[in-house]
Design brief:
The chain is an alpha+beta fold. Helices cover about 30% and strands about 35% of the residues. It is elongated and about 95 Å long.
C-alpha cells in the first residue's frame, strides 16, 4: 500500500512540468525596447509583435525605418524577408538580424546595431507585414512600433531603470514563494489522501474473518391412523 503515497519530489516534478508547459505556450511577450545606447558599443533595437491566435498559420516580413533628429521623413534602412538586406549607406555593415530564425511566422523582429555613433540618435520605426492564412481566406495586417534612441558617451542608470530592476526581483521572489506554498499545499493534500487510504486498508486487513454455519434438521412422522406430525428444527451458529 505504501507505493500509492506520492512523494514530495513527484509533486514538485508535476508542478514544474505544468509550469513549463504554461510558459512554453505563453512564450511570446511584447517587451519595449531599450532607448539608450552607448557610443562605440552595440545596441539591440527591439521589436516584438506577438500573434494573437497561435493556431492560425501566418508568415511575415519586416522593414525598419530611421528618422534622425531634425529630419521630417523616415528613411528605409533594413528589410528582412527570409534573409536580411541593409538599405541605407549610413548603416552599411552595421545592421544584423536579431529576431526569429526558425520560422517565417516572425514575432520577434529585432535587429542589432553595431558600433553605435552619435549620428544614430533618432527615431526607429519597425513595421511587421503579417499574412494570416485561414481556412477560406487570407488576411494581411501591418504592425508598427517605434524606438526613440538616444546615444550617450557613457552608460547611465536612471531612476526608472533602478525601480524596474527592483520590481523585477520582487516579482521573481513573489512567484517563487507562491510556487513553494502551492507545492506544500498539494503535497499535504495528496499525502493525507494516501495515509487515509492506507489506514482503511490496514483496518480491513486486521478484521477477522466471519464464518456462518446453518444446520437444518427436518423430521417427519406419519401415523397410519389419523394424525400426521412434522417437526422441523433449524439451528444457526455464527462464529466471529
Amino acid at each position: 500500500m505504501g507505493r500509492n503515497i506520492v512523494s514530495l519530489e513527484q509533486v514538485i516534478f508535476v508542478l514544474l512540468c505544468t509550469l513549463g508547459v504554461g510558459m512554453c505556450r505563453g512564450a511570446c511577450a511584447e517587451v519595449d525596447s531599450d532607448t539608450e545606447a552607448v557610443a562605440g558599443k552595440g545596441f539591440k533595437l527591439g521589436c516584438i509583435s506577438c500573434k494573437r491566435r497561435s493556431e492560425v498559420e501566418g508568415s511575415a516580413t519586416v522593414d525598419w525605418f530611421f528618422r534622425s533628429k531634425g529630419q521630417k521623413d523616415f528613411e528605409h534602412i533594413y528589410n528582412y524577408d527570409e534573409e536580411g538586406s541593409i538599405k541605407s549607406f549610413q548603416f552599411e555593415d552595421r545592421l544584423d538580424w536579431f529576431g526569429s530564425r526558425q520560422s517565417n511566422d516572425i514575432q520577434d523582429a529585432s535587429i542589432f546595431l553595431t558600433n553605435v555613433t552619435f549620428n544614430d540618435s533618432g527615431t526607429y520605426r519597425c513595421r511587421v507585414n503579417r499574412l494570416l492564412t485561414y481556412e477560406f481566406y487570407e488576411y494581411q495586417t501591418k504592425i508598427f512600433k517605434e524606438v526613440n534612441l538616444t546615444v550617450v558617451g557613457k552608460a547611465t542608470r536612471g531612476t526608472a531603470s533602478i525601480v524596474s530592476e527592483v520590481m523585477m526581483y520582487v516579482a521573481i521572489i513573489g512567484l517563487q514563494v507562491w510556487l513553494l506554498i502551492e507545492m506544500i499545499y498539494c503535497y499535504r493534500k495528496i499525502s493525507a489522501a494516501g495515509e487515509e487510504a492506507l489506514r482503511e486498508a490496514r483496518k480491513y486487513s486486521l478484521q477477522p474473518p466471519t464464518h456462518t454455519h446453518t444446520h437444518t434438521h427436518s423430521h417427519s412422522h406419519s401415523h397410519s391412523l389419523t394424525h400426521t406430525h412434522t417437526h422441523t428444527h433449524t439451528h444457526t451458529h455464527t462464529h466471529t
